[in-house]
Design goal:
Length: 273
């Protein structure tokens, strides 16, 4: 098969555990680009937090962001954006407040909003310390999310819930899934990611394939976690990296011999492109 698109997850798939791209993977990515293949980042991250990678390794390539909520073309123009329903967001926040003050944050216009500094907010403050100002994520701590959303409207692409108690997260997810107009997924065992109904990396890949008039059977998708499953099933060739969660490997057409720290993406490009 002459594949035209390879869409790859970042964290746990392309990136090493230290969040870098190995020289081998970078060389193979550029080799694929030179052959005319569109090499697409497909991430749960916001565009701004992918900016460094977009401007260095993935120049002039389309990008799937925020689990498919935002899609950029090769010129970094937003060609698709799905926002969460305002009333659905308010219902979700009520659920998160039922039992305890559950940590969550949400993304709007390349800004992270949270009611307190904890979990991911600390991680992103650290991320900002190591980044040029053009690639830093703006973080705003607000007093009350419901009041903020009611007063400022809703331009929210994704909500992320984080807790160490997996049973509690499972309980929350069951309740949140009953709210209309939303879907949930996970990129880590300790989180829940909330997006608009029908939005996924799979829907993002399908949109891109249609946008560039490329059949889905000429697309490869690669990932390691639950939020990658939709695109792995959607693509003509769905691939799980060696370090992927076991259920994802069962959904994949191919499982790499190498993991994210040892050139899994390079292995795929060498074998299939």
């Amino acid at each position: 098969m002459n594949y035209k698109i390879i869409a790859m997850d970042m964290d746990g798939t392309l990136l090493n555990d230290d969040k870098s791209i190995s020289k081998y993977n970078e060389e193979m990515i550029h080799k694929a680009m030179r052959s005319g293949v569109k090499v697409v980042i497909s991430s749960g991250r916001l565009p701004v937090t992918l900016g460094f990678y977009i401007d260095t390794v993935f120049k002039n390539q389309p990008v799937i962001c925020c689990n498919g909520s935002i899609v950029l073309d090769e010129n970094k123009n937003i060609i698709k954006s799905n926002l969460l329903d305002k009333e659905a967001i308010l219902k979700v926040i009520d659920i998160l407040r039922e039992k305890k003050d559950t940590y969550y944050h949400f993304y709007s216009d390349n800004i992270l909003y949270s009611e307190r500094v904890s979990h991911a907010t600390r991680k992103f403050y650290k991320f900002n310390e190591n980044m040029d100002k053009d690639f830093r994520l703006e973080i705003k701590i607000i007093k009350d999310s419901k009041e903020f959303i009611q007063n400022n409207g809703s331009c929210i692409n994704k909500i992320v819930v984080i807790d160490k108690d997996i049973d509690y997260l499972n309980e929350l997810r069951e309740k949140i899934n009953k709210v209309s107009k939303i879907d949930t997924t996970k990129s880590d065992i300790h989180n829940i990611e909330i997006i608009s109904k029908g939005v996924s990396k799979g829907s993002g890949l399908k949109f891109l394939a249609d946008y560039y008039h490329i059949p889905l059977n000429e697309c490869i998708a690669v990932g390691n976690d639950e939020n990658d499953e939709s695109m792995i099933k959607e693509a003509g060739l769905g691939i799980a990296v060696a370090n992927a969660r076991e259920f994802l490997k069962k959904s994949a057409d191919y499982v790499t011999e190498k993991d994210n720290n040892n050139g899994a993406i390079g292995e795929i490009i060498k074998k299939f492109i």
